[in-house]
Amino acid sequence: MSDIFISYARPNERLAKVAGEVLRGAGYGVWRDDELPAHRAYSDVIEERIAAAKAVLVLWSGEATRSQWVRAEADAAREAGTLVQVSLDGVLPPMPFNQIQCADLNGWNGETDTPGWSKVMASIASLAGAAQAPAAAQAESGPPPSARAVVCVIPLLNMSGDTEQEYFSDGISEDIIIDLAKVSALTIIARNAAFALKGKPIDMPAMTRDLGVTHIVEGSVRKAGQRVRITAQLIDCSNNHQLWGDRYDRDLTDIFAIQDEISKAIVGALKLKLLPKEKKAIEQRTTTNSDAYNLYLLARRHWVSGNVGNRRRDELIVRICERAIGIDPNYAKAWALMALAQAEMRFWHRVDENGMPAAERALELDPAIPEPYCVKARYFQGAGDHDAASRELATALQLDPQSWEVNKEMAFLLFRQDRIAESIPYFEKACSLMDTDYHDASMLTTCYEATGDKEALQRSAQMTVSRVEREIAQDPTNGGAMGMGAGGLAVLGELDRAREWIDRAVMLEPDNILMRYNLACALAMQLGDNQGALDLLEAYFDQASLSHLRHCVIDPDLHPIREEPRYKAMLDKALARLGATRAMLREG
């Protein structure tokens, strides 16, 4: 894995290349985004490279201060304590980076004897250590051994003979990833990248080359009644040798002990030592009841399915969580997940559900769980208090910056305030954290269309379509997914296929109003069919909640039809039905 990650705005690419060459000449391993593998999602690779880098060199300029990508990369480095920053043109770094020392490289062109560059090298040496001898001098002895293990947990295979048990093996895999991520001496490949390898042949040289992986964990889960068998092994990618392996054949009630033993065995095989707080974090579970845990994993599988806007999904999650809580009334994660689903039902489906009591109960049991803060933020946003909503989400991000739900909620909060460029890093982060998330991928397409970033627009459209294709291969009746994917197809120029998806979606789920809305966006923005968009929106406006309408008046995808008399009449009719005014649309 490279020692140094270089972050820069595209107009500064020449100087980024110069900086990289100077650092390589000094013996450091350097990575910048000209080395992106063609088959990987941009955001996935960037996140992994920043997490693994010992130092992140940010090249600030007037253009860089306006780049949401540079800001997001700098923020990740600031949180990790690996930020080294320079100014290329005299511009000061934006807040909060202006509180951190910044070297002056105004007019720099690769000279290694300037005071500014000397300051950069001193900072990098303090973070990444003294540079190794240049690559040419190491040719005979080979590259230096990595000081940090980079582990990828390949999703455990479901060997239960029942595809319905897939949620259980996936849940166990996810928990092992979470446990190992608590070990400060390890770098763990993110869930999204790991799950992208599920069911595929393992290509260790490619994983080492593209992800910097040094070790992989693989295995299987077989669940039958109240018995579970889990096999796991740790493999060294450099020589394909097994460093550790074991089989656990026990009662389901031992599932938590098995997870703890696997994580500790991996740490021991890598000759690392757990800090006391890390050992405590790994052993801490929010339930000790295996039946409640099994139900929670099932509910979460439905939650992360990506089928946003499906009322039946949310109702099912609430029912499953209620059963889990009935078994263990102190299961904080089950309370939190139920609160999320109840909030969806209230704000998207106009169902008389109140997620606040469940959210408050979850926080009472465990204040460190981030998801309940999303529910509180949703209620504050519904009341028009954006500042309070932002505070709740800032707390949640502090607790867990890797939470899919929190990044997603922050993205929508900013989007609905018409702060579209600011929402992009959070949508990107959400997509990188959950490989089933085609909804936020579709939102990125909207954002990049609005900001005029054509390259990113194509990338996000392709991501949306590929994720939707995977979903409808599993469930060909998912019209909601097709509704998200139709716009992506249109962006990619597949107009006939986009219209085919629109027709199929309406046939499959004529009463899905969120799907109708997304199809209308594709027709208006991408296909130029204003009347077709308005036809689809009639049923939407007849049922839309105030939260829907607040999103609608911001969404740039509907700009082509905003002045249509028919659109205005439908909006006013919906407002009258809700006893609301146009002024109220900007309050939440």
Written description of the protein model:
The longest helix is centred in the last third of the chain and has 21 residues. 47% of the residues are buried. Helix 11 runs antiparallel to helix 12 and helix 15 runs antiparallel to helix 16. The two termini are 45 Å apart. Strands 6, 7, 8, 9, 10 and 11 form a six-stranded mixed sheet that branches. By secondary structure, this protein is of the alpha/beta class. It is globular, with a radius of gyration of 25 Å. Strand 1, helix 1 and strand 2 form a beta-alpha-beta unit. Helices cover 56% and strands 10% of the residues.
Major beta sheet summary: 6 strands, mixed
- Low-pLDDT ranges: 133-147
Structural class: alpha/beta
List the quaternary state of the chains: single chain
The fraction of residues assigned to DSSP E strands is 5-15%
Estimate the mean pLDDT confidence.
86
Number of helices, where a helix is a run of at least 4 consecutive DSSP H or I residues = 26
Q: Give the CA-based shape.
A: globular
* Cα Rg: 25 Å
Number of strands: 11
Helix content: 55-70%
| Distance between the ends | 45 Å
